[in-house]
Amino acid sequence: MNHDALVSLLRRRLDDIVPGQADSLDLDDDFRDELDLDSMDVLKLVRALHEELKVDVPDTEVGRLRTLRDFASFLEARVG
Question: Which CATH superfamily is domain 3-76 in?
Answer without folding.
Answer: ACP-like (1.10.1200.10)
